[in-house]
Amino acid sequence: MQGHSNIGLSQAPALWINPEYGGQAQEVEVGNITINDVLAAEQRLARFAPLLKKLFPELDKSAGIVESPLLSLSADVIAPGADEYGTFWVKADHQLAVAGSVKARGGFHEVLEFTEKIARERGLLKDDDGYEQLASATARECFAQYEVAVGSTGNLGMSIGIMSAALGFRASVHMSAEAKEWKKRLLRSHGVTVHEYPGDYAQAVATGRDLARENPFSHFVDDEKSPSLFCGYAVAALRLQRQLLDLNVRVDREHPLFVYIPCGVGGAPGGVCYGLKHVFGEHVHCFFVEPEDSSCFLVRMQNPDVEGISIYDAGQHNRTIADGLAVPQASELVYSMMRTRLAGMVVASDERMVMDLWRLKSMADLKVEPSAAAAVSGPRALLGSKEGQQYLRSTGLDAFMPTANHIVWTTGGALMPADEFDRLFVQGQALSSALDAGRISAA
Ligand SMILES: *Cc1c(COP(=O)(O)O)cnc(C)c1O
């Protein structure tokens, strides 16, 4: 492979390589999470599968397990010439049943862990009783005494709200200014109480957390600090390992695996990365992708000494079309676990996300939201930038690129209303043809 990129791109998205990647974890990790907690989460989801199958008819064909397919992706979606750098895949979380986003695994897991705790405390579960009976009138009456609350820009609220309401809990979602109207409408149609705030995501979370603290019958799902969410997200890695095996995709020195995941507070991509590093060790390389004006995880990674640093401290404003990623502050829990595990970060413009939304639909028939389309900027940045090429050379990975595999993690979109999607699709098409005509720059 040559020292320069063969990808047909004038300007690649910005790439930052983590200088601490692969080093010794000298710092104490905040949450004391181990892989046993992730295995326990996987088993918990399996225990609840019969109940979920009963509550959601759409889970009938998967026997109550909520999982997405691993689909093959044409390298042309990334860029002309990308096929020289390996084989491309989509981990299609935008199709995840019930919640329509990556939040399904983490969010469902935390609600189910809470359900299990209440059911045990209240004597609803005897040792050898099946979990289906938690759909009984007695169980629902009991659950109705409790509230499950969460702060959300949208998708976490949908995951937590829909699952809690289906089990019979009272569900409250505290939503920040970025939250889309259709997400609020959909939640209300499930009987979820939606509280709206004019402020940003961190403020919605703080308000929800304070309200829940005063109420002993309320469980607050804390996106910034929750080990239960994190472990639920990490289950994806165990399942992906089996999907790769089934497809005869090898992961070893000669077959490096690159994974690109959109990032908000870091929980979902962090969980996946943690799980994948456990499974594949040094042969998997994870990159998170963030919006230019909401790159909280990058800001935190670049300021290891500044706990709690926000994007505002770095001169950003949290204005982005990617509502699922519009987060001002990274999770400290996840940051501590990513310091030596995360290979790097990519930053994508809103225009890029809208154009990639259009590309994924028109070239691969995948309907994703802008936050999920951000993932396409991952391989483009690694393979198309000077920094990326330099990284691949210095690590010796360049020798194995033709046999590499790349996974673009499309994190959400299935529940988007058609008119909302069509509007973005048309916008992406117009931007792409303007770019072809050389009228705007490809930041
Ligand atoms: C929440 C979300 C992410 C990122 O997850 P975090 O845990 O906030 O980092 C990515 N994509 C979509 C569509 C999301 O809803």
Account of the protein in words:
With 443 residues, the chain is α/β, with parallel strands linked by helices. The protein is built from 15 helices and eleven strands. Helix 2 (103-121) packs parallel to helix 4 and helix 8 packs parallel to helix 10 (332-338). The model has no long low-confidence stretch (mean pLDDT 92). The structure holds pyridoxal-5'-phosphate. Pyridoxal-5'-phosphate binds next to helix 4, helix 8 and helix 12. Pyridoxal-5'-phosphate is lined by residues 101-103, 155-156, 262-269, 324-325, 327, 369, 371-372, 411-412.
| Helix and strand run | EHEEHHEHEHEHEHEHEHHEHHHHEH
Bound chemical compounds: pyridoxal-5'-phosphate
Q: Provide the CATH top-level class of the largest domain.
A: Alpha Beta
Helix count equals 15
| Rg, alpha carbons | 21 Å
Strand content: 5-15%
